[in-house]
């Protein structure tokens, strides 16, 4: 379902837009994803709504069929993209699994602020973004996806998340649609 509304207490979650990840090849240019996420962050800040900037520094310990390289980031690879213009009031969070809610206290922190809805952007669509969205939905948050402010390394995985998974978890919209809705409902 296309975006219809934003709750009065909506937070922005920006997933893994950090140096080591935005340097990887992606379906859509990472620079454009960062630019759009930064525009969303600025709009949320302008309306005094929470901005959560998430980075990742580890992986879950379980076995997988695909080889992993947990030390794959170059030095400084965990640093958030400068374009996000991190502000003192932003919530910053380091995760060690795919999803931002797992063992981080994010659920309690957002609910403590009265947040009932999250808008999600970031990389990778089918991993960090989708895992975070599934948890948010299961925890009772309304979920909106900024579909032009996310990308993946795998085009099929990106397409599957955007077209098949996300409509079952929430609403989708473009950065412009989300910002316009913020501006029109919080004037």
From TrEMBL:
- Keywords on this record? Hydrolase
Alphabetical list of InterPro entries matching this protein: Isochorismatase-like_dom, Isochorismatase-like_hydrls, Isochorismatase-like_sf
User: Which GO molecular function, any one, fits this protein according to its record?
Assistant: hydrolase activity
Q: Does the keyword Hydrolase apply?
A: yes
The protein's matches in Pfam families, at most eight in alphabetical order, are given as: Isochorismatase (PF00857)
Q: Extract the Gene3D superfamilies matched here.
A: Isochorismatase-like
Q: What class of enzyme is it?
A: hydrolase
Isochorismatase-like domain boundaries: 10-176
The catalytic activity of this protein is classed by the Enzyme Commission as 3.-.-.-
The superkingdom listed in its UniProt entry is Bacteria
Q: Which PANTHER family match?
A: ISOCHORISMATASE FAMILY PROTEIN YECD, PEROXYUREIDOACRYLATE/UREIDOACRYLATE AMIDOHYDROLASE-RELATED
Instruction: Spell out the protein name for this chain.
Output: Isochorismatase family protein
What organism is listed for this UniProt entry?
A: Ferrovum myxofaciens
Annotated gene = yecD_1
